[in-house]
Prior knowledge:
This protein is α/β, with parallel strands linked by helices. Helices cover 39% and strands 19% of the residues.
Amino acid sequence: xxxxxxxxxxxxxxxxxxxxxxxxxxxxxxxxxxxxxxxxxxxxxxxxxxxxxxxxxxxxxxxxxxxxxxxxxxxxxxxxxxxxxxxxxxxxxxxxxxxxxxxxxxxxxxxxxxxxxxxxxxxxxxxxxxxxxxxxxxxxxxxxxxxxxxxxxxxxxxxxxxxxxxxxxxxxxxxxxxxxxxxxxxxxxxxxxxxxxxxxxxxxxxxxxxxxxxxxxxxxxxxxxxxxxxxxxxxxxxxxxx
Length: 242
């Protein structure tokens, strides 16, 4: 059997991905599919960390836009990510995958407080680590948290799960002429304002040479295909011929 291409990955899940076709909350069918794919990847010997958003429950930016103080709204968004992380942990453990939730905001009754060395040790022991509460600071997105945590734990790639099969020149849901990119550089993303991840996250990845793969979460088997070395979605690196 061919060994997986990546030994340690960070999977970035948006909160919106968890709500499926619902307008709010968690679609348990979607959660079941995601956790089954994570279990398959773990069975290949890949170490998996996950950063999860909270947009299916509350978004700090939308709260601030409606008149809330931005820092308070962002903290509420961070708490929403903890709810999602606990739901993900529960389903993973029901499938026999040992999991730890680490929160950037201390809440010892619910999750471990984030400690980098402890997170790395969990990964080395084959446990899935779910990072919740973003960076623990307002004004930073979970994209930035994903880039930061990926570098701290020594992940080899960030796998950014979306609803489309890669990065396009425009929103393919709205513009039928949008063109898909097979590969991009970090500078391409920033210059063209492609919204792969926010500018802070892209800059962090660029400074540290951390590749990003943007793929469609709704296509069964994509996570396993990527870790096995198959070309899926859009690869973002520092090389124009990636």
